[in-house]
Amino acid sequence: MDPLDANTQFMKVYDEFADAIFRHCYFRIFDRERAKELTQETFTKTLEYAARGGKFSNARAFLYKVANNLIIDESRRKKPVSLDKMREENGFDVMSANADSRIIANTEAAGILKIIEKLDPKYRDVVLMKYIDDLTPKEISEITGESENNISVRLHRGLKQIKEIFNE
């Protein structure tokens, strides 16, 4: 393949998935700057893999798999961040016409994050991938290396646990 074509293809993939990969990283580590760095690392590692002749059939699933591996490495190096610390240091970039809307949106986002923090980690990741990253169970299966059936079961149980947490 012509290097110019490969570069054009890579830029197209970057444009299509960079924001989604950033959100994926951010909702797992709650550090905006580090999420940006992990997003860049994800694309760098993917480009290096492709340059070495590596092949993948689903760019989206491959990018999420690389991002997940980087997040796992990050979590092994770093202690968890509390919701309060995340709000103090990072805040939320909620696009809104006025301050009242931002306050409401921040309050809703904080409530959602509290529920997500309480969710069992084995359910948290698949729920975030499905409902934040908008991935299908098949794509989640490709990313995690687990069966599609197992992912569906985790999604079902994760939603059940969210309902239980919500009703506490």
Characterization of this structure:
The protein has helices spanning 3-29, 32-51, 59-77, 83-89, 99-118, 121-131, 137-144, 148-166. The chain is mainly alpha-helical. It folds into two domains: 1-80, RNA polymerase sigma factor, region 2, helix turn helix motif (Rna Polymerase Sigma Factor, Chain: A, Orthogonal Bundle), CATH 1.10.1740.10; 107-168, Winged helix-like DNA-binding domain superfamily/Winged helix DNA-binding domain (Arc Repressor Mutant, subunit A, Orthogonal Bundle), CATH 1.10.10.10.
Give the gist of this structure.
With 168 residues, the protein is an all-alpha fold.
Just name the CATH architecture of the largest domain: Orthogonal Bundle
| CATH structural class of the largest domain | Mainly Alpha
Order of helices and strands: HHHHHHHH
The assigned structural class equals mainly alpha
Largest sheet: none
Shape: globular
Question: Helix fraction?
Answer: over 70%
Radius of gyration: 17 Å
Stretches with pLDDT under 50, minimum 5 residues: 92-98
CATH overall fold name of the largest domain: Rna Polymerase Sigma Factor, Chain: A
- The CATH superfamily of the largest domain bears the name RNA polymerase sigma factor, region 2, helix turn helix motif
Oligomer: single chain
